[in-house]
Structure to design on (995 residues):
């Protein structure tokens, strides 16, 4: 509501200026002054004052609205690289806001100060090489510093994932995310093949690869705190984009071209809940690449667990093969023995890898 | 000032100079050849302008519809059913697919049909011959074709708004596979086919326009109009045309490959796709390839819409500050720098698309270099105002507004161009705020400055100034109120192209409910304020106050032409040019402006020492007259 009041006051302010200037004009016309053929008219000073007022109210509105919105910005980054990019962001913001404020102030101030005056002549000042060189070099230096620090951070973020990284696969589809873990026995994700996808095997797990046998899928993303995580990202149908806002992670999911992003979560879900004072707070994984009707609702919940809790959760998960023993038939003869250890003695009800796609109809 | 005045005998003689075919045409032009299939650059410019204005109202109203959804997610839009029909669902809400269609068409229309065709098409056509002293474009026929290809493309794009499956809906960038697979969304069916057809024709139109602009500028400058005496407007149109000519064909190739993928079973962009319960046979294609091809146009496109605005602003600011533009050569140099760099920064749109991160580093370096010439331009505009004697015409107000928006939107480019920072901000409202300010609003302000400034030359009448002031202030305040707060939602991690923000979770959307409503109200007011312009424009065409020959006391050549220039622009000889276009408030000169047509020999009192050398060249310039006439009579 504050905004509405603010906006309305601005509108009325402008209307007031209009009415005043209009009546000024009427006065002029009454006094018989003819200005029809001149580009210059009685509004010239009004417009000049307008820029000064715009500058004044703009500055107040800018500062106030920033302070007002600040509590609602993303909270402190919950990943190692996120802390670095956040601090770089705010430093860069300070630099550009300074430049923004100075240049806009000069622009509006000059517009006001040098409004037309019949008794003055403009200064013929076509060129000054020294000035040009100064304001070419200064932005160049500032830019070079910003680029260099940015480049180093970017290089670190996109470097090879550490060898101890936990590998998790996230696959986007219209409209949800599949999550696959490498399993409890090997830490290798098995091959997948999009031609093997069916209603149950919604990822197209390839059971001719023995690494697939212990892979399990989930409809939420669990991450261990303090341990590097390598997200392997895929898409099945169209482009999607993995966005973990709180961890400052974003990477497109591209059909036919697996992508990756590694990072280290630093704040667990519980810690974030305590920090924000919100008991039901949850991290989210959203989609940020337009993918169709359900794009805006394509989200799953992300849990960052203490390493021990994470281990416990992982160990409780059942491999896909255990949940769906019928797929043993897809395993080649020479690997059947290895695979059969994942088949429960008593067959359990088949379960598809459901996802938590938000209903969008 | 009076050098262009010729005696009637001269006019008569000139008529004969033109040869018989021309004379024949002059008398036989019917309504259709004069106003519809016209080859006259001025008529074509007006056609572009009016098409652009109509498109702007369509594109703007689409944005108002989706702003209603974003600002007031609980509002019933039942009252829009008479217009939108089935696109309002049973619950009285905007259909989710149609929301994406609105976003897509708003972007397409604004970028291509308003700011490319409406801005560069209008003013390149109108000003190039008039400001360089040419009778018309190098090829009037190709110029006419250029407009009518654009018109055809417009009709096709417009018709796509009315088909049952809806217009293209995959975002204005139409990334495949979403745009390639009709089963991915209804908008990727017939709507996308029409989009691609329309854009292919649009590109043809742009290429014909561009080649004409370049040829005209290089070949048809009047005697004495050397490159370093050209107004910055012409320089900017020249660079714009070069950018378009080199980059639009790449978009055409991207579109053609997409057409092949859609209709002929190729796999340029498609690989390993499982959709709607079906595994597609396509293997080996790359969606990233499309993105490279698209942004190879897409980034120069930003400067295609921005450079003409900057060029016209240079002219308007110099004229109304009554001062030469500061750093004329630095302005040309920075535009040249921007033009070259524009081709090698495209992949900064793709930092997190899965492109090799090393490429990301390279493009980050190149991107931040382009900030330097842009900064130089900003500083030069500000210095031009310094110690000026500023006349605030509506055009001048919009030009100052442009500089402000160019700075405000430009500085955040330094953040987004940094790939490490782009990770979090990519595809959020921060990006929306950035490009709407620096490219959308700034170019739109350039367009408005151009219309207000050259309206007298176009129609021989003046637009109402007071209405212009009100229009400016409402628009200027409004644009800031709409786009400035979007930075905040961007920093809060709100992604763009979201129908609603509920899935962000944790009640995140409610923090900005007020702000989103505020933005929508500001957008509605700003959009409504354009009605002032709309009525002022069309009213003034017919009923505006009659203009004088040079209402802004400007130096450039177009103001030496008759108030309403006829076919061939100048009666009698085309005037010669002796000086640069920015001799305002020159020390020693009685008048505060000296038009380009005044020789230095006529102004000994105000000549700078080096300019006295120019006097010797005047004879040479005058001796070119015969050759110039010759070229028109061939």
């Amino acid at each position: 509501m504050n905004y509405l009041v603010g906006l309305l006051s601005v509108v009325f302010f402008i209307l007031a200026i209009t009415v005043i200037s209009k009546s000024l004009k009427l006065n002029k016309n009454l006094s018989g002054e003819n200005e029809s053929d001149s580009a210059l008219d009685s509004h010239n000073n009004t417009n000049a004052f307008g820029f000064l007022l715009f500058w004044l109210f703009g500055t107040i509105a800018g500062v106030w609205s920033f302070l007002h919105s600040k509590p609602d910005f993303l909270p402190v980054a919950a990943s190692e690289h996120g802390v670095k990019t956040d601090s770089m962001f705010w430093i860069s913001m300070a630099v550009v806001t300074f430049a923004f404020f100075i240049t806009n102030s000069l622009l509006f101030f000059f517009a006001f100060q040098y409004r037309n005056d019949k008794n003055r002549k403009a200064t013929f000042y076509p060129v000054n090489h020294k000035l040009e060189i100064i304001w070419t070099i200064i932005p160049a230096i500032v830019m070079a510093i910003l680029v260099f620090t940015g480049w180093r951070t970017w290089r670190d973020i996109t470097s090879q994932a550490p060898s101890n990284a936990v590998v998790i696969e996230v696959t986007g589809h219209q409209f949800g995310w599949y999550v696959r873990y490498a399993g409890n026995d090997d830490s290798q994700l098995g091959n997948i093949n999009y031609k093997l996808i069916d209603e149950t095997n919604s990822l197209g797990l390839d059971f001719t690869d023995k690494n697939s046998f212990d892979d399990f899928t989930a409809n939420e993303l669990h991450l261990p705190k303090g341990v590097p995580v390598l997200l392997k990202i895929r898409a099945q149908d169209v482009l999607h984009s993995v966005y973990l806002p709180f961890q400052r992670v974003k990477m497109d999911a591209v059909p036919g071209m697996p992508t990756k992003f590694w990072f280290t979560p630093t704040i667990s879900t519980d810690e974030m809940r305590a920090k924000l004072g919100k008991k039901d707070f949850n991290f989210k994984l959203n989609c940020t690449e337009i993918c169709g009707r359900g794009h805006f609702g394509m989200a799953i919940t992300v849990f960052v667990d203490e390493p021990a809790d994470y281990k416990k959760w992982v160990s409780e998960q059942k491999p896909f093969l255990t949940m769906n023993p019928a797929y043993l038939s897809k395993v080649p003869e020479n690997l059947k023995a290895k695979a059969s250890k994942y088949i429960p003695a008593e067959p359990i009800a088949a379960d598809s890898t459901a996802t938590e796609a938000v209903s969008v109809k | 000032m009076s050098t262009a005045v010729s005696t009637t005998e001269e006019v008569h003689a000139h008529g004969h100079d033109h040869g018989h075919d021309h004379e024949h045409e002059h008398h036989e032009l019917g309504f259709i050849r004069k106003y519809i299939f016209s080859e006259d650059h001025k008529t074509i410019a007006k056609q572009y302008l009016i098409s652009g204005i109509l498109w702007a109202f369509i594109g703007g109203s689409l944005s108002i519809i989706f702003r209603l959804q974003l600002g007031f997610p609980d509002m019933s839009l039942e009252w829009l059913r008479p217009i939108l029909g089935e696109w309002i669902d049973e619950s009285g809400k905007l259909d989710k697919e149609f929301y994406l269609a609105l976003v897509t068409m708003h972007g397409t229309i604004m970028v291509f049909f308003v700011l490319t065709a409406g801005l560069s098409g209008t003013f390149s056509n109108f000003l190039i011959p008039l400001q360089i002293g040419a009778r018309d474009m190098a090829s009037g026929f190709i110029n006419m074709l250029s407009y009518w290809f654009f018109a055809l493309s417009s009709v096709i794009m417009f018709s796509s708004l009315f088909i049952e499956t809806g217009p293209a809906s995959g975002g204005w960038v139409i990334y495949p596979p979403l745009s390639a697979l009709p089963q991915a969304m209804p908008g990727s069916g017939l709507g996308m086919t029409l989009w691609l057809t329309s854009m292919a024709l649009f590109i043809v139109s742009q290429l014909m326009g561009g080649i004409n602009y370049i040829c005209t500028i290089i070949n048809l400058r009047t005697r004495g109009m050397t490159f370093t005496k050209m107004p910055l407007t012409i320089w900017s149109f020249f660079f714009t045309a070069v950018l378009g000519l080199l980059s639009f064909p790449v978009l055409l190739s991207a579109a053609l490959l997409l057409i092949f993928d859609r209709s002929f079973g190729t796999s340029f962009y498609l690989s390993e796709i499982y959709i709607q319960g079906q595994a597609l046979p396509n293997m080996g294609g790359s969606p990233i390839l499309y993105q490279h091809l698209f942004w190879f146009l897409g980034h120069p496109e930003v400067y295609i819409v921005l450079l003409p605005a900057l060029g016209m602003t240079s002219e308007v600011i110099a004229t109304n500050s009554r001062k030469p533009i500061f750093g004329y050569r630095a302005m040309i140099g920075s535009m040249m720098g921007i033009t070259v760099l524009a081709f090698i920064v495209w992949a900064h749109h793709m930092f997190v698309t899965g492109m090799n991160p090393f490429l990301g580093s390279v493009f980050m370096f190149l991107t931040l270099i382009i900030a330097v010439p842009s900064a130089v331009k900003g500083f030069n505009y500000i210095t031009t105002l310094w110690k000026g004697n500023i006349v605030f015409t509506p055009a001048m107000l919009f030009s100052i507004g442009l500089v402000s928006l160019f700075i405000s939107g430009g500085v955040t480019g330094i953040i987004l161009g940094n790939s490490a920072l782009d990770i979090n901000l990519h595809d959020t409202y921060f990006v929306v705020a950035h490009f709407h300010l620096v490219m959308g609003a700034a170019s739109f302000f350039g367009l408005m400055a151009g219309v207000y400034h050259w309206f007298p030359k176009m129609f021989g009448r003046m637009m109402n100034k007071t209405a212009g002031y009100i229009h400016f202030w409402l628009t200027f305040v409004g644009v800031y109120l709409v786009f400035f707060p979007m930075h905040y939602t961007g920093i809060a991690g709100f992604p763009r192209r979201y129908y609603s923000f509920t899935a962000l979770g944790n009640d995140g959307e409610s923090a900005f409910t007020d702000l989103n409503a505020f933005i929508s109200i500001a957008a509605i007011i700003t959009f409504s304020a354009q009605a002032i312009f709309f009525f002022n424009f069309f009213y003034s065409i017919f009923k505006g106050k009659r203009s004088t020959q040079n209402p802004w006391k400007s130096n450039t050549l177009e103001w030496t032409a008759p108030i309403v220039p006829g076919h061939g622009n100048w009666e009698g000889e085309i005037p010669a040019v002796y000086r640069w276009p920015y001799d305002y408030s020159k020390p020693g000169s009685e008048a505060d402006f000296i038009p380009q047509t005044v020789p230095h020999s006529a102004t000994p009192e105000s000549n700078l020492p080096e300019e006295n050398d120019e006097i010797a060249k005047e004879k040479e310039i005058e001796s070119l007259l015969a050759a110039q006439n010759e070229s028109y009579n061939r």
